[in-house]
């Protein structure tokens, strides 16, 4: 499976560290993470990306003809 | 070109390659901001990722997870071109974040800006693992593949990220959360009142 030096012993130790977090702490972190992420993905996408992709597609179509 | 995902004439119900990329834009932007630590540089990283993805379209296998495929491209771009730049900005944020650890007994509410400062304090590998698995909808297996690492390593990074966040936010121990901290403060105040009287 994993390499001994960073496998079971180390992973278990970190696993234990997280296991010591109370469920409600885990839940709170999870909620905040989701809130943070929802804000990130809700931000409007700059037009520059849509323009870039439209240009790439148009260029390719013109080459294909 | 026949096998190229870009030029396959899709049935009307199947999105084109461009449309698929557009649909993934918010997710890859979020990942770019996560890696960079801030918005700074993230949009340049997204732009480079889109250009590379377009050029590498033939290597995308339809039916596989496009988000994970884009994450690999974005991640490689970040580590080869952007990392140093982003670090400089992160250090500034880190200086702000050091002020986070306020002794207990004060404001028990942790707002989103506290959370973001704490998140910015994490090593980038822990931060990206947490975002991928905890918010972006990737499985541990997919995240491990994106990062080119073992499954156990990703699990370990996510666990360490959670433990560190709880620590930075002062909610890692028993009774540090919301109402309990308030209770503690009341008890402390009561105690000092008794001591003073």
In the CATH scheme, what's the topology name of the largest domain in chain B? Rna Polymerase Sigma Factor, Chain: A
User: What is the chain-wise order of helices and strands of chain A?
Assistant: HHH
Number of domains of chain B: 2
Percentage of residues in strands of chain A: under 5%
Largest interface: A-B, 43 and 49 residues
How are the SSEs placed, and which strands pair?
The complex is a heterodimer of chains A (65) and B (197).
Chain A lengths: L7 H12 L3 H20 L4 H18 L1
Chain B lengths: L16 H20 L5 H14 L10 H32 L14 H10 L2 H11 L5 H8 L3 H18 L9 H19 L1
Summarize the structure.
The complex is a heterodimer of chains A (65) and B (197). Chain A has 65 residues and is mainly α.
Structure overview:
The complex is a heterodimer of chains A (65) and B (197). By secondary structure, chain A is an all-alpha fold. Chain A has 3 helices and no strands. Chain A has one domain. Chain A is 77% helix and 0% strand. The N terminus of chain A is likely disordered. Chain B has 2 domains: 100 residues, Rna Polymerase Sigma Factor, Chain: A (Orthogonal Bundle); 96 residues, Arc Repressor Mutant, subunit A, CATH 1.10.10.10. The longest helix of chain B has 32 residues. Chain B is globular. The C terminus of chain B is likely disordered.
């Amino acid at each position: 499976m994993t390499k001994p030096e960073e496998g079971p012993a180390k992973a278990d130790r970190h696993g234990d560290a997280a296991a010591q977090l109370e469920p409600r702490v885990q839940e709170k972190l999870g909620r905040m993470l989701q809130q943070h992420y929802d804000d990130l993905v809700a931000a409007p996408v700059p037009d520059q990306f849509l323009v870039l992709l439209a240009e790439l597609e148009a260029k390719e179509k013109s080459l294909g003809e | 070109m026949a096998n190229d995902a870009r030029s396959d004439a899709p049935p009307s119900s199947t999105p084109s390659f461009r449309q698929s990329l557009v649909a993934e834009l918010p997710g890859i932007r979020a990942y770019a901001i996560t890696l960079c630590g801030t918005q700074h540089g993230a949009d340049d990283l997204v732009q480079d990722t889109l250009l590379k993805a377009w050029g590498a379209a033939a290597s995308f296998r339809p039916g596989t997870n496009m988000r994970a495929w884009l994450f690999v491209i974005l991640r490689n771009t970040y580590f080869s071109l952007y990392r140093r730049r982003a670090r400089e900005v992160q250090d500034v944020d880190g200086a702000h974040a050091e002020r986070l650890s306020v002794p207990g007994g004060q404001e028990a509410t942790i707002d989103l800006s506290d959370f973001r400062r704490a998140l910015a304090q994490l090593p980038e590998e822990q931060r990206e693992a947490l975002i991928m698995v905890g918010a972006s909808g990737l499985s541990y297996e997919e995240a491990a593949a994106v990062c080119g690492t073992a499954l156990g390593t990703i699990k370990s990074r996510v666990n360490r990220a959670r433990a560190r966040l709880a620590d930075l936010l002062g909610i890692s121990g028993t009774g540090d959360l919301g109402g309990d901290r308030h209770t503690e403060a009341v008890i402390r105040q009561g105690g000092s009142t008794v001591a003073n009287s």
